[in-house]
Amino acid sequence: MAGNKNAYVEANNLMSAVERQLIREDNVVEAKWTLAKAVSDCRGALTDEEYAAVLERSCRLMSLHCGNHEQLEALEAILDWLSDADIITEEQYARIVRETDCGRWL
Description:
The protein is an all-alpha fold. The chain is built from five helices and no strands.
């Protein structure tokens, strides 16, 4: 499948914007939902390799700033949505949770 170069650039630009928002700890849950929806939306527009790169980066970003049970519950709701949509695997779900600050204590 041929990828849409604009979709790949847009996905990376969005992830960079979300990453800046997460670093500032500004509306973290909203930023993660934005990221999840973007990953879902770009799935058909990218090559398999591009999508894998976008998904991997998104998984790393999802684990940022999750140090208490409220943040973990919000993250799990996002991950449940991604899992139900067959966007992430059970292994990816578990890895994201494990890599959070909160998950390291579990």
